[in-house]
Design a protein that fits this description.
By secondary structure, the chain is of the alpha+beta class. The protein folds into 3 domains: 285 residues, no CATH class; 115 residues, no CATH class; 64 residues, Arc Repressor Mutant, subunit A. Helix content is 41%, strand content 18%. It contains 16 helices and 15 strands. The strands form 4 sheets. An 8-stranded mixed β-sheet has the order 5-6-9-1-10-11-12-13. Bound molecules: adenosine-5'-diphosphate and magnesium ion (MG). The site of adenosine-5'-diphosphate (ADP) has 14 residues, from strand 1, strand 9 and strand 10. It catalyses: L-glutamyl-tRNA(Gln) + L-glutamine + ATP + H2O = L-glutaminyl-tRNA(Gln) + L-glutamate + ADP + phosphate + H(+); L-aspartyl-tRNA(Asn) + L-glutamine + ATP + H2O = L-asparaginyl-tRNA(Asn) + L-glutamate + ADP + phosphate + 2 H(+). InterPro entries: Asn/Gln-tRNA_amidoTrfase_suB/E, Asn/Gln-tRNA_Trfase_suB/E_cat, Asn/Gln_amidotransferase, Asn/Gln_tRNA_amidoTrase-B-like, GatB, GatB_C_1, GatB_Yqey_C_2, Gln-tRNA_amidoTrfase_suB_CS. Heterotrimer of A, B and C subunits. Belongs to the GatB/GatE family. GatB subfamily. One of its GO terms (biological process) is glutaminyl-tRNAGln biosynthesis via transamidation.
């Protein structure tokens, strides 16, 4: 039997507001426990929450970026449950009238094809505190600094059909929220977390199978691993005559497996009702239009422009637009050197390779975009050849000079294009290599092209890499063929 996987994601994005969604307490990460929770976050008697306008604006901007409907009215509801890190006894969320209505995202897959994933809605809510188990023996510590941090929960339709698609969707969300600057997207610090709903069905069957929900997965890789595990578990279960039960599960990265947390039978009845302390949020068209005007160029538009206006391949355009930092770096290199293709090749090749080797992000690059652009300009105007360019790159990386020109000068890397000088070097190499010259002359004509490589290497060496390789090639061929 062939099976098909069905996946829907609920992504929680921490919004990058300075203060909390209903109070003035700071949202900064990493402070002393319980130093950033005020009376409102604790739900003390007599408090009144006030909506942070910045959180509303950020949610609307996300909605506009995913082509969603923005309803005129949205309403905050109380979701009632008890948990030690939720001192109010309810989470303020949006159930029936979310701030962002249906939308969609075009997701690019590994083979560069795109798929449209529909978004059911996105709603605003507050985060809970944190329970700390490690530092306490037989007790749990509660840190309420995170309580009241604004979250945007983005709920997809069950439109994904593989772990790869789910990861690509999550990356697309990450890319959009960081482009918009509405979240730092830092998954390691929990700024983006995701609940993964997974089910399987026989291929061709219309109705969905029963799903399991894997809670709080916090990396792209874990999303893929958790789905892979779930798919195998569910198929095995069904093929052995069992039934998938609707339940909440937990992914354990150490054992690379998911485990049951609670089944739907024990699930809470949250008794949602509109929060009496908060007015409905009413957005007029002018306000929404104003936010729309402030949207930056988004990943999909940038990708399209890189392809259509700059002539990059679909692959290059995708890689270079994936993060805003990468896109900005690439564009500056391109503007400085004036050649989009060269800029794309170097940013993805030499630069990304060096960054990966040293585990650095593009923001931490020891070579800035202006320096790389100036280096490429010297390749384009033939001041240096490709080989020397790599030496200059390395020297810039190691901080051995402030600019490409300075290094070219200091290291004497200027390309030799004077054909007299190149001919002299060629004559010397030919005179020094009688055996190789004889071999060349004896070889079949179609083998000679390959054999010329030896001579090119010798001449380049004699010039310390500065001779113009095309000139060396042409002149060598002339001189060797004259000996036939
Ligand atoms: P709930 O209200 O219980 O959270 P929802 O209908 O809101 O359930 O769905 C939550 C998430 O689960 C959504 O992202 C949705 O796409 C996904 N989902 C729903 N049904 C399935 C299914 N059968 N298989 C996989 N994902 C599903
Ligand atoms: Mg849900």
């Amino acid at each position: 039997m062939e099976w098909e996987t069905v996946i829907g994601l609920e992504v929680h994005v921490q919004l990058a507001t300075k203060s909390k969604i209903f109070s003035g307490a700071s949202t900064a990460f990493g402070a002393e426990p319980n130093s950033q929770a005020c009376a409102v976050d604790l739900g003390l008697p007599g408090i009144l929450p006030v909506v942070n306008e910045q959180a509303v604006a950020m949610a609307v901007q996300f909605g506009l970026a995913v082509h969603a409907d923005i309803p005129e009215v949205s309403v905050f509801d109380r979701k009632n449950y008890f948990y030690p890190d939720l001192p109010k006894g309810y989470q303020t969320s949006q159930m029936y009238h979310p701030i962002v209505g249906p939308g969609s995202i075009d997701v690019t897959l590994d083979d560069h094809s795109t798929r449209k994933i529909r978004i059911h809605h996105a709603h605003l809510e507050e985060d809970a505190g944190k329970s700390l188990h490690e530092d306490f023996h037989g007790m749990t510590g509660i840190d309420l600094n995170r309580a009241g941090t604004p979250l945007l929960e983005i709920v997809s339709e069950p439109d994904m059909r593989s772990a790869k698609e789910a990861a690509a969707y999550l990356k697309a969300i990450h890319s959009i929220v960081t482009y918009l600057g509405i979240s730092d997207g830092n998954m390691a610090e929990g700024s983006m977390r995701c609940d993964v709903n997974v089910s399987v069905r026989p291929k061709g069957q219309e109705s969905f199978g029963t799903r399991a929900e894997v809670k709080n997965v916090n990396s792209f890789r874990f999303v893929e691993r958790a789905i892979a595990f779930e798919v195998e578990r569910q198929i095995e279960l069904i093929e052995d005559g069992g039934k998938v039960v609707q339940e909440t599960r937990l992914y354990d990265p150490e054992r690379d497996e998911t485990r049951s947390m609670r089944t739907k039978e024990e699930a809470n009845d949250y008794r949602y009702f509109p929060c009496p302390d908060l007015l409905p949020v009413v957005l007029d068209q002018a306000y929404v239009d104003h936010l729309r005007e402030q949207l930056p160029e988004l990943p999909a538009d940038k990708r399209e422009r890189f392809q259509n206006a700059l002539g990059l391949s679909a692959y290059d355009a995708h890689v270079l637009s994936a993060s805003r930092a990468m896109a900005d770096y690439f564009e500056e290199v391109k503007d400085v050197c004036g050649d989009a293709k060269q800029a794309a090749n170097w940013v993805q090749g030499e630069l990304s390779g060096a960054l990966n080797r040293e585990n650095l992000s593009i923001e931490q690059s020891p070579i800035n975009a202006r320096q790389l652009g100036e280096l490429l300009a010297r390749v384009i105007d033939d001041t240096i050849n490709g080989k020397a360019a790599k030496q200059v790159f390395q020297a810039l990386w190691n901080n051995q000079g402030a600019s490409a020109d300075e290094i070219i000068e200091a290291k004497g890397l200027k390309q030799v294009t004077d054909s007299g000088a190149i001919e002299a070097m060629i004559d010397q190499v030919i005179a020094d290599s009688p055996a190789q010259v004889a071999q060349y002359c004896d070889a079949e004509p179609d083998k000679r092209g390959k054999m010329i490589g030896y001579f090119v290497g010798q001449v380049m060496k004699a010039s310390r890499g500065t001779a113009n390789p095309q000139q060396v090639n042409t002149l060598l061929k002339e001189k060797l063929d004259a000996k036939l």
